[in-house]
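Hi everyone, sorry if this is the wrong subforum. Our group has a chain we'd like a structural model of before ordering constructs, and none of us has done structure prediction before. Sequence below.
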Amino acid sequence: MNYATYTQQAIPSSSVDEQALAQAELYNHLESQAEAVAPTQDPLTSRDRRIIGEIIQVEPESVRTIWIEGGITVWVQFVEGGRLPFDRDWFATRVAQVKATLPETPRERNQRLESELKEACTVFGLYYGEIDYLIFSTKVYRNGHLIGFIGWDEEGWYARPRQYGLNRVAPSAEQVIGLLGVRAAVAA
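Answer:
Right subforum, don't worry. Here is the predicted structure as tokens:
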């Protein structure tokens, strides 16, 4: 009776390397396709990264993300790999301290002001035109008619009914719109 004996042959290393490269290329392609179809949103704002960078004394751009594990530990993940653990209560205290002292960037200020302006315009049934973000000013309208000009400067919110004239100043966008003589929109 004849028996066949099989032996395992070694796979040439070049074949393994080519396979690994092809697999890596496939994964990269799939990852880029997935990102194109459903881009991931970054949960951290630039301000968040600045706060975290200030707390742990790293460049803000080096922070990838953070998460809380078990309700106790805050983990900070870095872009280049690696992560650091922190006590949640200590981290929360430091975030509050840094937030209180970290100055607002011009972009953050513009986002905050536009948000306040949008809310105020909603109350009065107004809409605003294109905002000049360098000086933060815009025109406000109701039913296609120009109501006035609104902006924000070092004195606070200001409004004026015409292009030229004196600014009327108030501490909030809603109050300054009221200075233009506009009444709040009433639900019908």
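For your construct planning: The beta strands are 63-69, 73-78, 83-87, 127-128, 137-142, 145-153, 156-160, 168-170. The chain has a mean pLDDT of 85.
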